[in-house]
Amino acid sequence: MTDGRSVVPDAESVDDLLDGVADDGLAGYNYAYLDEHTKREVRRATLKAIALPGHQVPFASREMPLARGWGTGGIQTSLSLLGPEDAFKVIDQGSDESVNAANIRRLASRTADVETTTDATDASVIQTRHRIPEEVLDDDQILVLQVPITDPLRRVDGSDDANRRRHAHKNYSKMWVALYENVVEYGEIKLSSRYPVLVDDRYLMDPSPIPRWDVPKLDDADNLCLFAAGREARIYAVPPHTEVEPLAFKDRQFQVERFPDQACANCGSEDTFLTEVETDDGDRRYACNDTSFCEKRRANPDLSKAHHRDGNDHAWGPATDPSVPDGPTENSEGGERE
Amino acid sequence: MGYVAVEAGEDVIQRAEELFEKQRVDGESDQLSVEQVDDQFSRLTAQAMSEGGLYAPRLAAIAVKQAQGDTAEAAFLLRAYRSTLERWGSSRPVETAELFTTRRVSPAYKDVPGGQVLGATKDYTQRLLDFELTDDDGTDPTEEWDAEPEDPPQLRNVMEVLRDQGLVHNPETGSDEDQPGTPFDATREPITYPAPRAAVLQELARGETGAVTALGYSELRGYGQVHPTLGEVRTGDLPVRIEHPYTGDEVEVTRASVTETECVVPIYEKADDPQFSFGYGLVFGRNERKAIGMSILDAAIQLDGDAPAQDAEFVLDIVDGIDSFGFIEHLKLPHYVTFQSILDRIRSIRERTAAASSGDDAPVQEVSADD
Question: Disordered: where is this region (chain B) (predicted)?
Answer without folding.
Answer: 133-154, 168-190
